[in-house]
Design brief:
Length: about 230
C-alpha cells in the first residue's frame, strides 16, 4: 500500500519524562514496486496535546456552567438576566421577562430601552456608571409601577454586576428580587406596633413618639405647646 503511515504515541524519554509524539512515514519502492524502505519524521507534540486537553477541559467547564446557569434561570424565584455592552438582552429567565410582559424569546436580542421603557430612564445612568467604574451596584431598592397594572407597585432589590471574560468586560449581569410582600409585612408590623388593633387609633407607644416629636419641634422653634387629653367619654 502507498498510503502514508501515521501513529501518535506516548514515549518515556531517557530523563524519565513522558512526551507525546507523532510518527509519519511514506514507503519507498524500487522498480519492481517492492517496498525497500520507509522515509518518515517523528515530531514532539506534547505541548500541542496539553493545549488541546486544556481546551477540552475549558469546553467541558463552559458546558457545565451553561447547564447550571440554565437550570438556575428556569428554577430560581428571582429575576436573572445578562445584557451586552450595548445593553441588549443576551440572557433572561421567565421571572425577569414577565416583568416586561414579554416571553424570554421576545426579550432576547432587544435593547433594555425597548424591553422596559418605563424603567429605562432610571436604569440607564446606573448601567453606564458600572461600565465606567467596573464596580457593581448591589441591593438597590426600587419601587416600580407595573405597566400592566396601573396603580399597583412592586418593591424590588436590584443588583447589577460587571461580567468579565478573560479580564475583558463583556456585559452586565442583572439579579432582581421581589421584596413587595416583605415590605408590606414590615409596614403592617410597623402599623400594628403604633396603633390599637381594635380601634385603629394611636396606642400609648405611638402617642409618646408623637409627643416627643412635637416637643422637639416646639423647643427648636421656641413655640408654645399644650397637651389636652380627653377620655373615651369626652
Amino acid at each position: 500500500q502507498d498510503a502514508p503511515y501515521g501513529i501518535e504515541y506516548r514515549l518515556r524519554r531517557y530523563d524519565g519524562e513522558f512526551r507525546w509524539q507523532v510518527c509519519r512515514a511514506l514507503p519507498v519502492r524500487n522498480e519492481l514496486q517492492e517496498v525497500v524502505k520507509w522515509i518518515g519524521t517523528v515530531t514532539d507534540i506534547d505541548d500541542q496535546r496539553q493545549v488541546e486537553e486544556r481546551l477540552r477541559q475549558a469546553e467541558r467547564q463552559a458546558v457545565e456552567s451553561l447547564s447550571l446557569l440554565e437550570t438556575l434561570q428556569a428554577t430560581a424565584p428571582v429575576g436573572i438576566g445578562f445584557v451586552d455592552l450595548d445593553f441588549r438582552v443576551v440572557l433572561v429567565n421567565d421571572v425577569l421577562a414577565a416583568s416586561s410582559r414579554l416571553s424570554r424569546e421576545q426579550a432576547i436580542g432587544r435593547s433594555l430601552a425597548e424591553v422596559i421603557p418605563d424603567f429605562w430612564p432610571e436604569l440607564e445612568p446606573v448601567l453606564k456608571q458600572i461600565l465606567e467604574t467596573g464596580q457593581p451596584v448591589i441591593n438597590n431598592e426600587l419601587v416600580v409601577e407595573l405597566p400592566a397594572e396601573p396603580g399597583h407597585t412592586l418593591t424590588v432589590l436590584e443588583s447589577l454586576y460587571p461580567v468579565h471574560l478573560q479580564e475583558e468586560l463583556i456585559g452586565i449581569g442583572i439579579v432582581v428580587v421581589d421584596i413587595t410582600a416583605r415590605k408590606e409585612m414590615e409596614r403592617e408590623l410597623e402599623h400594628m406596633s403604633g396603633h390599637d388593633q381594635l380601634t385603629g387609633l394611636f396606642n400609648r407607644r405611638r402617642l409618646v413618639i408623637e409627643l416627643e416629636r412635637i416637643l422637639r419641634y416646639a423647643a427648636r422653634y421656641r413655640h408654645a405647646s399644650a397637651l389636652l387629653i380627653i377620655d373615651v367619654d369626652n
